[in-house]
Amino acid sequence: MALASKLAQLQSKATQASQFVAKHGPLYYKQLLEQNKHYIQEPPTVEKCDLLSKQLFYTRLASVPGRYEAFQKEIDYVKHMWKNRKELKIEDAGIATLFGLECFAWYCAGEIVGRGFTFTGYYV
Prior knowledge:
It is built from 4 helices and no strands. The protein is an all-alpha fold. Among the domains are: 42-88; 89-124. Keywords: ATP synthesis, CF(0), Hydrogen ion transport, Ion transport, Membrane, Mitochondrion, Transport. GO terms for molecular function: proton transmembrane transporter activity. One of its GO terms (cellular component) is proton-transporting ATP synthase complex.
């Protein structure tokens, strides 16, 4: 009985949400397009989308040397810090340790998500 009641409530809420979207959706869509019309490329064709996707890809590709240079600066900074580790303050060491722990935690979380939110890796 309780499951049927919950199902009826869920169906009622879904119907209400659907009606709300049907009533207010087109107006929201028009307002959104009007507010952001300066981003819209004319004419909105498949060819134009293809051109924009190629521009994005090659622009990102062109940014690789700058990113590589910034990465090299970061590596040089770490090397400098490692050479002068005797002068390293406790605060800096603590921040580096916390950063390492955060990276490890994100890695573990990614592994858990990748396994389908299981801790053992097996589907039970």
